[in-house]
Every structure is written in C-alpha cells, then in structure tokens.
C-alpha cells in the first residue's frame, strides 16, 4: 500500500530554485512509499461480554469446588421447563455477543492504510511508488526518467530510461514505476528524481526533484566478553528501538577463523516433549517494541592446535552477528554487526596446568599428578624448575616427593598432603 511522502520537495541550491521557478514545467513527480497496512484494534470489542458472566464471580470455575459452579451453570442453561430451555454450552465460542471468534482479539477485520511516510530503519528494503504526472494541456514527449539514492558515501542508481525513453505522457496522464533499495547506511538519504523531456513547444527541459528522508537504527547490540582460563564467554543484549514488535528469525554468531562458538541456552522443562511437531510449533523469539530486550550467551573456544597461535596479531577478533527479523505483518529486516573484539589479557610466556589429578586424595599418602607445561611464545625457552609455592599461612600443606627438577613438556610429580585444606592450582 502507498503512503504519500511528507518531506516536501527541496531544490539543490538557491540558484537551482530560481531556475526551476522560471521554467513552467509540465511534469511533476509524486513519491509514495509502498508499505503494508496495519491492524486497527476495535476498543469497543474489548467491552463485549455475555450477560451470563455476571452470575458468577471471576474465580468460580477455578475455585476449590468447581462442581458447585458447574451445577449452577447447568441449571442456568438447562432450566427444568423444557419449553423455556436455552440450548448451548457456556463456552468461549458460543457466547451471546461473541458470535465471531475474531471478536476476542478486538480486531474488526479491517486493515488500515498508512497515513504518513513512516520511519525507515537500517536493514529494511525501501520500496517507493513514483508517479510522474503531466498537469499541463500539452503532451510531453521523449521523457528520460532517472531515480537514484544519494547518501553521504555513495550514489545508487535505481532507474534509468535513457536507452528506452517514454515516448509520450499525454495531458492529464501519468507514468508510474516502482523502485526498491536495500538500506545499508544510517543517516540522511535523498531520493533524486529527474526527467528530461520535450514540452509542447518542442523545448528540451530538465526537471529535478529531491525527496529527503532519514534512516534510523532498528536495534542495538551490546556485548560483554569474559575470559575464564581457556574459555571465552560472549553475552549479547539485543534491544528493539522500533515501534513494532520484532520476531527474530535468526541470530547467528559467526566466529572468526581461530574460534569455535556454541550457544548456551537454559534447560527446557522436563515436561517438554521433543518431537518433529514440537520443533515446528516452537515459539518464536519476540522482542517487544519500544525498548524490549533479549539476551544471548555464547561459549567460545580456541580452535588452534597451539595456544600460542591465539596471541598473534588480529587474534582479538571474535566474530560478528548475523541478525534477521520480521515485523508484525512479516516485513523482513537484516543486519550484520561489526567485528566483536575480545578483552585484552596479559600474555604469559608459559602455561602450567594439571592434566590428571586423582579424584580422592588421602592425607599423608603419596599421589601422582600429571602436569602440562606449554610454551606460548615463538621461541624456545627452558629448562624449568618446578616447585610448590608456600601457603599464605606459612604452613607447608604439601610436599613434593620426587619429579625432575628441570624439564620441558608433560611430566608427572609425586606429592602427598601434610594436612587438610591444600588446593592444587
């Protein structure tokens, strides 16, 4: 459906305005935006009720003794005298004034056309219905029409009839066409419509018209990055800035080459039955209009064979989001975020971690621990000396029995606890 452009016609410069006023143009552009209609609720429908509702309190059917309410309803709907019986059930569909089930939605069944040009958001497809009208008493011939979008960065040609001009537009007639543009930039946009034609006197005239509009951001993506040992957690909060609900078709995180990503979701309720039908009927993710938010959590792991490779230049890039959505009436939108960077962490030359620790350790009894020492630099380092750091209390809680004092790679040590409370880090 078309809604008229409300931005007005603005000339490119004062000199061009004077020149345009001096020329009596036969043609004029009219720009309308093609958009889908909206649903208009009928507030009066919300007040419709069945007169029989007033006989029972609100919690009669959900109270501790529903049988009493059922008996009352049965007597109300089926009186003893069959001649005056009122057939039917006390159900939602068969209410006295709710003959149409759509009445419960407060929708009259009519669609409302847009009354204004409306807001244009990044990631949407701008579709415009343009009509060039001949309001003079003469015929315009050999009409060359061009339409383009101008932004701060580029100019995009949408229509050009130079190779096949419109032969003529008669007096009182018009020529209509539709242009589409995928909006990929924020800020001011200008739709430039030009016509080059021969008027009734055979004079070649040039008509430019400019229609300005602004593109806003439909949503914002705020991210938080936390690193715990070798695992990186990425939290993304998506906020809806539009005036309509957004149904998220796809929110995918595309990790960088050296990362692998897994989305973390809350466990489903045990009563949820997993089946093919359940997947088809899965509730869509809805982000409500005017500031609604939805959070996503991803677990990232380095896919490099060597941990040292993640310290190379450019490894701070984690990846980017691909987001697609639909509005109430199915209009699509798509956005791609910029690269998300990890939080800078202090780089260590070597990393020592426990590979295998016995599940049960007894006091004053030796046990074996497998440790792994990793070189995270691009040069050879070593040899190393392994020892246990003293505890904060100054009391020795563990004793290193044996194990090589100078080593490189994976090794095994024998330890035993001198007392309780020791933690192996």
Flag low-confidence runs: 6-22, 82-86, 92-96, 305-314, 403-408, 418-425
Shape-level CATH architecture of the largest domain: Sandwich
Question: Regarding CATH, which class of the largest domain?
Answer: Mainly Beta
Cα separation of the termini: 67 Å
Mean pLDDT: 74
- Element order: H for helix, E for strand: EHEEHEEEEEEEEEEEEEHEEEEEEEEE
The major beta sheet can be summarized as: 6 strands, mixed
Number of individual domains = 4
Describe the structure.
By secondary structure, the protein is mainly β. It folds into four domains: 2-37 and 114-216, Immunoglobulin-like (Sandwich); 43-105, no CATH class; 219-312, Immunoglobulin-like (Sandwich); 350-417. It is 6% helix and 42% strand. It contains three helices and 25 strands. The strands form six sheets. Strands 5, 7, 8, 9, 11 and 12 form a six-stranded mixed beta sheet that branches. Strands 15, 17, 19, 20 and 21 form a five-stranded antiparallel beta sheet that branches. Strand 24 (398-402) and strand 25 form a beta hairpin. The longest helix has 12 residues, at 66-77. The chain is flat, with a radius of gyration of 36 Å. The relative contact order is 0.11. Residues 25-215 form the Trafficking protein particle complex subunit 13 N-terminal domain. This is Trafficking protein particle complex subunit 13. InterPro entries: TRAPPC13, TRAPPC13_M, TRAPPC13_N.
């Amino acid at each position: 459906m078309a809604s008229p452009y409300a931005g007005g016609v603005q000339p490119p410069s004062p000199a061009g305005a004077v020149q345009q006023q001096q020329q009596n143009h036969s043609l004029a552009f009219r720009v309308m935006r093609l958009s889908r209609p909206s649903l208009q609720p009928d507030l009066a429908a919300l007040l419709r009720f069945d007169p029989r509702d007033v006989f029972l309190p609100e919690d009669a059917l959900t109270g501790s003794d529903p049988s009493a309410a059922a008996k009352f309803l049965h007597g109300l709907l089926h009186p003893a005298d069959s001649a005056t019986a009122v057939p039917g059930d006390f159900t939602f569909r068969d209410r006295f004034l709710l003959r149409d089930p759509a009445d419960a939605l407060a929708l009259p069944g009519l669609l409302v056309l847009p009354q204004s040009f409306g807001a244009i958001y990044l990631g949407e497809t701008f579709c415009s219905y343009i009509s060039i009208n001949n309001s003079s008493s003469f015929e315009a011939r050999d009409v060359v029409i061009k339409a383009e979008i101008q932004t701060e960065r580029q100019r995009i040609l949408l229509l050009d009839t130079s190779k096949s001009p419109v032969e003529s537009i008669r007096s009182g007639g018009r020529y209509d066409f539709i242009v589409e543009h995928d909006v990929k930039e924020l800020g001011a946009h200008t739709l430039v419509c030009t016509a080059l034609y021969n008027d009734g006197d055979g004079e070649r005239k040039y008509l430019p018209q400019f229609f300005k509009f602004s593109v806003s951001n439909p949503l914002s993506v705020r991210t938080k990055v936390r690193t715990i040992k070798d695992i990186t957690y990425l939290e993304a909060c998506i906020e809806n800035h539009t005036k309509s609900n957004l149904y998220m078709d796809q929110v995918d995180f595309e990790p960088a080459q050296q990362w692998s990503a897994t989305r973390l979701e809350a466990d489903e309720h045990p009563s949820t039955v997993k089946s093919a039908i359940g997947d088809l009927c899965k509730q869509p993710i809805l982000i409500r209009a005017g500031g609604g938010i939805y959070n996503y959590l991803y677990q990232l792991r380095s896919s490099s064979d060597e941990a040292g490779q993640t310290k190379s230049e450019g490894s701070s890039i984690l990846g980017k989001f691909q987001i697609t959505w639909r509005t109430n009436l199915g209009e699509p939108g798509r956005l791609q975020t910029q690269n998300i960077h990890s939080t800078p962490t202090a780089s260590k030359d070597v990393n020592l971690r426990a590979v295998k620790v016995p599940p049960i350790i007894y006091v004053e009894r030796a046990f074996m621990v497998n440790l792994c020492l990793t070189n995270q630099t691009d040069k050879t380092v070593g040899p190393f000396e392994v020892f246990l750091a003293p505890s904060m209390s100054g009391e020795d809680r563990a004793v290193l029995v044996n194990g090589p004092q100078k080593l490189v790679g994976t090794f095994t040590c024998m330890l035993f606890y001198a007392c309780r409370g020791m933690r192996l880090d």
